[in-house]
Write a structure and sequence with these properties.
single chain; about 425 residues; alpha/beta; Rossmann fold; 4 domains; five-stranded parallel β-sheet; five-stranded antiparallel β-sheet; 22 helices; globular
């Protein structure tokens, strides 16, 4: 059985939800190109669609499979010197070129550089990001084109058409959930449509929804153990010996270091029997100390829902707090079980006005991480606007002003947030 990704592979450029005019012209003029963008943004499929329209032959290798100089030379190097068997023009496609790294890459990057210098055929490379040091020389020899994540509207349009062709019953809510869980990865959306599985955890791990938002929406206490200590000793043969045993014990509880010797045991790892101070002290004596000695500065059972900014509940002031919020420290599975995560209504979070989620289609991974970490501060500054309020045009300016201290493209991000909010407001009514 063919996958939907293969079965509905675009055959023409008008089926690709990206602007391809520049890419097409560069290929026709035999220029070398590096397309970069997130997974599922149609980088590879756009090349095949254009090649089909121009009647070009496409020769492809994946850099994650062919990484050495000899392997690349034997396929792409030879193809770059020979005319097509069918007397056609051709495109040489090197997919996932950012996978060239480590010991497995023995001269692969340099081989690509050499081929780029003498090839008479257009070479197109794809990458998820441009940070790989081995791409440094390659980037000097190519025209770079960025592909943005596919928009929510485009993904819904595509999967709705496939549903109709496959006679799949669907609901607007179901399509919306596929977009949410796919994190704007069109390939992932098609795979999820076919498998009919909700991949909530994957979406959360990829920062579609911030941990702080999960904490805010959870309607029960989320108890963690905050612990700060100084010295540690073991008594051996009547002599006291300093030894770092605490960190080894805390690893069993997936403890998160907040700075110095201050740690947090996340809610999902707190033993169920701990309900009060007495239980906490008994656990600490029997399960952590085990007859050893530790000078405790602070040991407390806390509700992280009420202490989102950790610097406010430490017993001493931090001159330079390592983290702005507890959401920077924890992963989704640190606070909720898989069952609880699956039961969460992401729609409600979006309806509340989640600017991080709404802006994710236009932000780089680094920018998205910054916005997620500072999201509570930004939304408080805006008066915690709902999705309905964010969908109004007059929100562009205040959004841009609130975002400006954290990212460089505040104006365009603000416009995207308003556009996405308007789209989702209509879908969630």
């Amino acid at each position: 059985m063919k996958s939907f990704v293969e079965k509905y592979k675009p055959k023409s450029s008008n089926e690709i939800p990206q602007k391809l005019e520049e890419l097409r012209e560069l290929i026709k003029n035999k220029k070398h190109i590096l397309i970069y963008g997130p997974t599922g943004s149609c980088k590879t499929s756009s090349i095949y669609a254009i090649a089909n329209e121009l009647d070009y032959e496409t020769i492809e290798i994946n850099a994650s499979d062919f990484r050495t100089k000899d392997q690349i030379d034997s396929i792409i190097g030879s193809a770059s010197k020979q005319q097509s068997l069918f007397q056609k023009q051709k495109i040489l496609l090197i997919d996932e070129v950012d996978c060239l790294s480590g010991k497995e890459d023995r001269g692969g990057a340099q081989a690509i550089v050499n081929i780029l210098k003498y090839s008479n055929f257009p070479i197109v490379l794809t990458a998820n990001n441009l940070d790989n040091e081995k791409l440094k020389e390659i980037k000097k020899l190519v025209n770079k084109i960025e592909f943005k994540p596919v928009s929510s509207k485009e993904i819904i349009f595509i999967i709705k058409n496939i549903c109709e062709k496959e006679n799949i019953k669907y609901s607007e809510e179901g399509l919306k959930n596929i977009v949410i869980n796919s994190n704007w990865d069109l390939r992932a959306a098609l795979n999820e449509l076919q498998s009919e599985k909700q991949q909530l955890l994957r979406g959360l791990r990829r920062k579609g929804i911030s941990v702080n938002k999960l904490i805010e929406r959870y309607d029960k206490p989320l108890r963690g153990i905050l612990f700060s200590y100084a010295s540690q000793f073991v008594n051996e043969n009547g002599r006291t010996k300093s030894t770092p045993f605490i960190s080894n014990e805390l690893k069993r509880y997936n403890a998160k270091y907040l700075g110095g010797n201050t740690t947090l045991i996340p809610p999902s790892k707190v033993p169920k029997f701990i309900k009060n101070r007495r239980d906490l002290e008994k656990w600490f004596e029997t399960d952590i100390l085990k007859g050893r000695y530790c000078k405790v500065i602070y040991l407390a059972l806390i509700d992280i829902k009420n202490n989102t900014f950790w610097k406010t509940y430490l017993p001493y002031k931090q001159k330079r707090p390592r983290f702005h919020s507890i959401g920077e420290v924890l992963d989704p599975e640190d606070i909720l079980s898989e069952k609880e995560l699956k039961a969460i209504s992401i729609s409600e979070m979006i309806r509340d006005g989640n600017i991080g989620w709404l802006a994710a289609t236009i932000l780089t991974p680094k920018e998205l991480e910054t916005i997620m970490n500072c999201q509570t501060i930004i939304e408080n500054k805006l008066g915690n606007p709902s999705l309905r309020l964010l969908s109004q045009d007059n929100m562009v300016k205040p959004l841009a002003e609130a975002l400006a201290p954290y990212i460089g493209s505040a104006d365009s991000v603000a416009k995207t947030i308003v556009d996405e909010a308007r789209f989702w407001d209509s879908k969630l009514k």
